[in-house]
Structures are given as C-alpha cells and as structure tokens.
Amino acid sequence: MLARLFTRRWLLASALVLLGAAVLVRLGFWQLDRLEWRRSLNARVVEQQSAAPLQLDPAALDLDLYSMEYRRAIVRGQYLPQHEIVLRNQIWPGDAGNQLGVDLYTPLLIEGSDLAILVERGWIPQEHAQARGAYLEDGTVSVTGQLRRAETDFGFGRALQPDPTLAPGEDRLEVWNNLDLERLAEQMDVELLPVYLQRIPEGPQSAPPYAAVRPMDLSEGSHFGYAMQWFIFAGLLLAGYPFFVRRQEAKQNKTNG
C-alpha cells in the first residue's frame, strides 16, 4: 500500500497530505512553545509578586529593574508635571457604566537622585485630558505600585495605532496611543528609567485619577489542549489517507473489471 501512495497517480496528493500533516504537527509544537512561555511568565510573575517591596531609592537604581516586572515598589520624590502625558482611549467601569477617558502618566523625580520613573497615576475623564490642573500634586510624595515594562502592557497581540511624529514647531507629544518609554525620554530633560510604576490605590478611591491593578491570569491557558488537537488532526490525516486511496483504487478496479 505504501508503494501505491507514491505512484504517479497519487504522488501529488500524497505530497500534499504529507505537507499538511507537517504543518499541523508544527502548529502543535508551536502551541507547546507557547505553553512553556506561559509557564515561564507565570513563574516570573509569582516570584516577583512574592518578593518583598522594593524601596526604589538611589541605592536600588543600579539593580536590573527591567527583570523585576510585577514587583511591588515604593518610591519617594517629586512629580514633574511639565513632562506629564496621557494615554488616549481608556475605559473606566464607573457606576454609570463604562466611561471613556485617558490614563494619566507623570514622571516622578526620585528623591536623592537625578533619575525619574514614569508613574501611571490612573484614569481621568476625557474632558480633563488637556486641562489637568486639578490633578497636580506638589511637594514630595510617596507612591506604591508595581514595576511594569511598557511593551508587555495593554493586552497581548493588540494592534495599536502608531503615534504621530512631531509637527513643525512642536517639541513634545502630550497625548499618546502607545506607551513608548524610549521616545518619551527623548522629549524630557531628565533621564527616565526603562520601567514604569503602575500605582496601587490605597483604600477606596473617591475621585480621579482612579488607579486599577488588575490581577494576572496565572493559568496555563488552552495551549496544551490546542497542541493535542493539532497532533490528532495530523494523525487522522496520515491514518485516513491510505484508506481513502485504497477505497478509490477499489472503485476503479471494480469499474475496470
């Protein structure tokens, strides 16, 4: 039967079946790779969230903060409102239903250093995106939050509209589609850390900016199940194809006979 599959009549079909099976198997291994990535991410999140809060003072600034994503941190310093930005098209689930607004980000000059960290302070209404005077915080403040990488936030695989380039005469962009720390640092006169701080609210919030740190989904997802499905499809294709060929050959022999 195996030799019959590679006769001139069935050669092209057999090649296509083998190719299809190879693609299905590759998809299965891709899902297993995604599973390992998910397990690694979950382990990293658990490790960082279980660690003691980091005092983000000058002594801690030489640490590899980028590898500490999701770790709780406490920082003291002064906000730099002249470098403040907002992230457009953000939704807050208020009492009256979902409300459109922006997320407010303000750099914080870390006490005792010349470095700043961008702080996601929370959601504010759309109508306050340009006039944010009510949200100024003067003097030294202490902020508790969790460290985040900009490129891993806002949903995996989400397609975001690129931010525009500066128009002639503009020296900074205030309203952003994406959180691009490198580009943001270019329009600041202080050095910005490669991570930002997602503020964790302390107690009930009665007024904006409303901060929200949503819990991470630490499950393994459906990757293993999807992998098994692709492998089963490949097996069915390889196992079923010879029976199909045998049936077609039997029909032809019957007709010729």
Notes on the structure:
This protein is an alpha/beta fold and 257 residues long. It has two domains: 2-40 and 221-256; 71-199, no CATH class. Helices cover 33% and strands 25% of the residues. It is built from four helices and eight strands. It has helices at 2-5, 11-50, 181-186, 223-256; strands at residues 54-55, 72-79, 85-94, 97-110, 115-125, 140-148, 175-176, 191-199. Strands 2-4-5-8-6 form a five-stranded mixed barrel. α2 runs antiparallel to α4.
What are its keywords?
257 residues; alpha/beta; 2 domains; five-stranded mixed β-barrel; 8 strands
Secondary structure: elements and pairs:
Layout (H helix, E strand, L loop, with lengths): L1 H4 L5 H40 L3 E2 L16 E8 L5 E10 L2 E14 L4 E11 L14 E9 L26 E2 L4 H6 L4 E9 L23 H34 L1
Parallel strand pairs: 1-2, 3-7, 5-8
Antiparallel strand pairs: 2-4, 2-6, 3-4, 4-5, 6-8
Helix segment count? 4
Mean pLDDT: 90
Structural class, by secondary structure, is alpha/beta
* Morphology call: elongated
* Lateral strand order in the biggest sheet: 2-4-5-8-6
Structure at a glance:
With 257 residues, the protein is an alpha/beta fold. It has 2 domains: 2-40 and 221-256; 71-199, no CATH class. It has 4 helices and 8 strands.
